[in-house]
Design a protein that fits this description.
Elements lengths: L8 H5 L3 H5 L5 H8 L3 E5 L4 E3 L8 E15 L2 E8 L9 H4 L6 E13 L1 H10 L1 H21 L4 E5 L4 H12 L5 E4 L5 H8 L9 E4 L3 E4 L3 H7 L12 E6 L3 H12 L4 E4 L26 H14 L3 E3 L4 E5 L5 E5 L4 E9 L3 E3 L7 H4 L4 E2 L4 H6 L4 E5 L3 H10 L5 E5 L11 H9 L3 E4 L2 E7 L6 E6 L5 E5 L2 E4 L3 E3 L24 H7 L17 E3 L11 H20 L1
Parallel strand pairs: 6-7, 10-11, 10-15, 11-12, 15-26, 17-24, 18-19, 18-24, 19-20
Antiparallel strand pairs: 1-5, 2-5, 3-4, 3-5, 6-8, 8-9, 13-14, 14-15, 16-25, 21-22, 22-23
Helix pairs in contact: 5-6, 10-11, 10-17, 14-15
The chain binds flavin-adenine dinucleotide.
């Protein structure tokens, strides 16, 4: 048998890329969908879905044709035409976010229509259809991102810190956008004139061709794009999870898939620290590695498929922790009531005490090394600060595109703090140099970082170098400031849980029950802490994911008590 033998069953079973994007369902699959929805006729000229529509239904064509269009001013771009057996929709079918494109009936016919809840019930219970639909939705969203086919135009400049922030927010939320660079694209000035904004206002975000936002904070972008519009923020939840890094997303997947009413609050973007990693190579099941963005993007879709709701750019600002009426207060002062709470707010890099640091953040100083930051430093000398695995990963990744990478460490080398596979790659790379006993002591530049100073801690000698890109990846501090005095913390601010809570800790906190706290339970019954924010946690994606799933098992016990 040779490779072109089409009688091989395996070859027929593997759908082509086009079939995965635009599958045609079988009669049996259509019958299963029809059993959950309604049949209705569609007439040529109908607009089934338009840009910005909320609570978009799911349509499967039985006959006729539907064109997916992207209107832009007076013109329309045809993205694809769906025919009998095919279905309309992409990732927003699962997230419940507003539509990005128009679905126009180009030939009359008949469809099966399911509302958002009916579609979620279908993908939660029918494994075969779940695989086909979820895969197509995610691939279609990837195509939209790659083509910049969204409802957002971003006008920015590579020299402007706000531009990188907005790009990161949109990218890590998986939202497609068209980027126009002030310094490179001729159309930028014409657009600025049309929307009556000036170059000084960048980054400028044009939302659905109508709303113009000047250097908007992330929450304003989320509001404009309707990221949170479909989510009720007031009703009592079985569990509120604070933080959508690997630990929080894992708790959301297990909680929602086991039937709990789950709300996740995320102050920035889903993915947490893991989302800022260029390549995670030690997470079980991914022998060739996976980017943090891809891993956590999948987890985000998975949690939503099971019905977890995730509020974006809405951080917890306070915990009302008087049992049994727990509530998490969010940015706007709203209180979300919860029967149980899982704290998964992780940690962030400790910022060195350097003058002007905040001025250069995202303008030469970065806390992540993803393709977005690496694009900014192509062909340049870059400096990575830190001796841990995240610094090692960043150095190896940046060496692919940078001219030279210098790793500054305070200790005498990397072997005690970094995994062996990374140390070996650094040693083998002709581009990476490690400077031991060395500390960053100064940042200079007008607008963008231009020069840095570092000190040799053995003799105090200070050198100045022309460096425009510094990646800071030093030890982490826990995100627990918002907890005030609700929960017992250790002396570094990490949350104490389970057997780590001493008798004195529990007495001081007024622990009210005869039983001791469960594993991962804090000094308040029904409030759990998981992942990097927890005292004693091993700072790994796998442990964060494991703890998220374990906490849910205990949440069930709390809800049954
Ligand atoms: C660059 C880098 C590379 C890494 N590489 C690896 C690796 O290869 N392998 C590995 O195993 N581990 C790696 N790690 C470590 C791993 O990413 C972390 O251990 C893991 O992300 C911890 O998950 P978490 O969910 O506990 O916390 P985090 O990932 O820190 O997520 C916490 C989330 O909570 C949100 N949050 C914070 N405060 C609030 C609030 N008040 N309200 C609402 N939300 C809030 C944050 O925005 C964040 O999204 C890496 C880390 C970094 C930074």
């Amino acid at each position: 048998m040779n490779a072109s033998d089409t009688s091989l069953p395996l070859q027929r079973a593997v759908p082509s890329a086009a079939e995965r994007l635009f599958p045609t369902l079988t009669a049996a699959q259509l019958a299963r969908i029809a059993a959950r929805g309604r049949r209705r006729t569609i007439a040529r000229g109908d607009v089934l879905v338009d840009i910005g529509h909320k609570a978009v239904p799911f349509f499967v064509l039985l006959s006729g044709e539907v064109q997916i269009l992207r209107p832009s001013g007076a013109t329309e771009t045809l993205i694809v035409t769906h025919r009998a057996g095919q279905f309309v929709g992409e990732a927003n079918m699962i997230t419940g976010r507003p539509a990005l494109l128009r679905a126009y009936v180009s030939e009359s016919g008949e469809v099966i229509e399911l509302d958002h809840e009916e579609l979620l019930a279908l993908v939660q219970t029918d494994a075969e259809l779940s695989e086909i639909l979820m895969r197509a939705f995610i691939l279609r969203r990837s195509e939209l991102i790659a083509g910049g086919f969204g409802d957002v135009v971003l006008i920015g400049s590579m020299h402007c810190a706000g531009t990188l922030r907005v790009k990161e927010f949109l990218t890590r939320n998986g939202h497609p956008y068209h980027y126009i660079d002030l310094d490179r694209d001729a159309e930028a000035q014409e657009l600025l004139d049309r929307f009556q904004v000036s170059a000084a206002d960048v980054p400028v975000l044009i939302c659905r061709g109508r709303t113009v936002l000047r250097n908007p904070p992330n929450q304003e972008i989320a509001d404009c794009l309707g990221f949170n519009a479909a989510i009720d923020q007031t009703h009592l939840r079985d569990v509120v999870i604070v933080g959508a890094g690997p630990a929080g997303l894992s708790a959301a997947v297990y909680g929602a898939s086991e039937g709990l009413d789950v709300l996740v609050l995320e102050s920035n973007v889903p993915g947490g620290q893991a989302g800022s990693s260029s390549r995670i190579e030690n997470y079980l099941g991914f022998p060739t590695g996976i980017s943090g963005q891809e891993l956590t993007g999948r987890a985000y879709a998975q949690a939503q498929k099971f019905g977890a709701e995730i509020l974006i750019a809405q951080g917890a600002t306070r915990l009302a922790c008087n049992a049994p009426a727990y509530a998490v207060q969010i940015d706007e002062g709203l209180r979300v009531p919860a029967r149980a709470v899982v704290i998964a707010t992780g940690a962030e890099y400790r910022k060195p005490a350097l003058e002007h640091l905040s001025r250069f953040e995202n303008a030469g100083v970065y806390y992540a090394a993803t393709p977005m930051e690496s694009q900014l430093s192509v062909g340049a000398d870059v400096v990575v600060i830190g001796g841990g695995n995240s610094a090692g990963q960043a150095a190896v990744f940046l060496a692919q595109t940078a001219k030279r990478v210098l790793v500054l460490v305070r200790g005498d080398g990397l072997t005690d703090t970094m995994s062996r596979y990374l140390v070996r790659r650094i040693d083998d790379s002709g581009k990476i140099r490690v400077l031991a006993h060395t500390e960053l002591v100064g940042l200079e530049g007008k607008g963008h970082l231009e020069q840095i100073r570092w000190r040799d801690n053995r003799d105090g000698h200070i050198e100045t170098h022309d460096v425009r890109h510094v990646f800071i990846m030093t030890g982490a501090v826990p995100n627990t400031r918002w907890l005030e005095r609700c929960i017992v913390l250790d002396d570094k601010g990490f949350i104490k849980t389970g057997p780590d809570l001493s008798h004195d800790d529990l007495t001081g906190a007024g622990w009210p029950l005869a039983r001791p706290p469960y594993l991962l339970e804090t000094s308040r019954p029904g409030i759990f802490a998981v992942g990097d924010v927890r005292d004693g946690n091993v700072k790994r994606v796998a442990s964060a994911v494991g703890e998220g799933s374990i906490a849910v098992a205990f949440v069930h016990q709390i809800l049954h008590q």
